[in-house]
Amino acid sequence: MTRKYFGTDGVRGKVGDYPITPDFALKLGWAAGRVLSRLGTNKVIIGKDTRISGYMLESALEAGLAAAGINAVLTGPLPTPAVAYLTKTFRAEAGIVISASHNPYYDNGIKFFSASGEKLPDEIELAIEAELDKPMTCVSSDLLGKAMRMDDAAGRYIEFCKGTFPSDLSLAGLKLVVDCAHGAAYHIASAVFSELGAEIEVIGNQPNGLNINDNCGATSLGLLQATVVEKGADLGIAVDGDSDRIMMVDSQGNVIDGDQLLFVLAKQALIKGELKGGVVGTLMSNMGLEVALSKLGIPFVRANVGDRYVMEQLLERQWWFGGENSGHVICRQQVTTGDAIVAALQVLAVIMSSGKTLDTLVAEMPMMPQVLVNVRFSGDTDPLSSEAVQAALREAEKALEVGTETPTGRILLRKSGTEPLIRVMVEAESDAQKWAQHIADQVSAA
Questions:
Q1: Structure pTM?
Q2: Residue 54: is it exposed, middle or buried by C-beta count within 10 angstroms (0-12/13-18/19+)?
Q3: pLDDT category, 68, cuts 50, 70, 90?
Q4: Which of 33, 41, 278, 404 suits 254 as a labelling partner, its CA being 20 to 30 A distant?
Q5: 314 within 8 A of 280, measured Cβ to Cβ
Q6: Choosing from 37, 53, 59, 101, which is the catalytic residue?
Q7: Residue 65 gets which letter from DSSP?
Q8: Contact indicator for 227, 118 with CB cutoff of 8 Å
């Protein structure tokens, strides 16, 4: 079945435009409650990021769940991975996060976690969509759901994060700049790193409902780069609006992405004899990661884009490390989803135990030049089916010898699962920009 509302990361869109409206959120809460109640659910945790629209959607979801007889536990602003963690440890049967992750404040989204703290399986999302097509009803008054607040949610998560850092290590002597993206980690990240001994300079920690991800955070690293160099910090850490993705900056201001962080973690685990299996990347993962892991004898596979699909592969293979170059890094021995703070702590543990700097650790993974061009489209047409686009793709593939035994590059052309964008990605030893722009021009024209 084709999903009508759920994308790769829940339901997402512009606030006020269907389906990110209060009436749809109400119906979605009811539909989810109806499906989850069949699984024995009677308690759902609801968290959100710092967008102003979170209040509206939270209230609507709460009402819908109550109408289906489901109790809601409200955490207030909290990172997405914190909701996943609390859903599991609080013995709730599901978790809901109100967030559009790295998108601007005028977008929002709603995503679900299962009782185990993982993304809902496709079949459950399809069942929820089926309920959305039915008339909304209400349980009898004596069966209505209730709502309560979890006042210590932030503190619980802070202690959990600190517990993933080796007890025999400290961050003392390390100077960090942390960019919280004016998002859900604004009151979390600084506490975690400082309580473990680091000297902290925090930016992006003054949310006002409208400034989330605004020229800051994991998707806009200019401010972090400048601050790290200005303050003479050892490195910088950037999370996105809901703190499920991480990017780092070394002491010279160079960007370190998710692929490079996965390499650091996997290699260290191999050295310590603790690596379980290999590494799961995505179709967007840099070829440099694949090559560097191969030289170490570490298996590597690609999943579809989206951390839910990375997690599916990790669970199927029982491997520990997976993620995306955009910064979703999953350390499955500690967490059940992408977690920026936990991933940062694991990288910092490598730095502190090895005595090496971040730039030294990533130097053993040369990156293949990669160009990503995003082309916005209405969503009403399919530019990828255009003959002109397909002709440009064939021309580029021939030039880069794609499909041969010795390719000099790789091309990926796909629709975004979270935004109305066509993503054109080209990796090549040379001419990556040329071929990416050539294909993107044809997509735009189509």
A1: 0.89
A2: buried
A3: very high
A4: 278
A5: yes
A6: 101
A7: H
A8: no
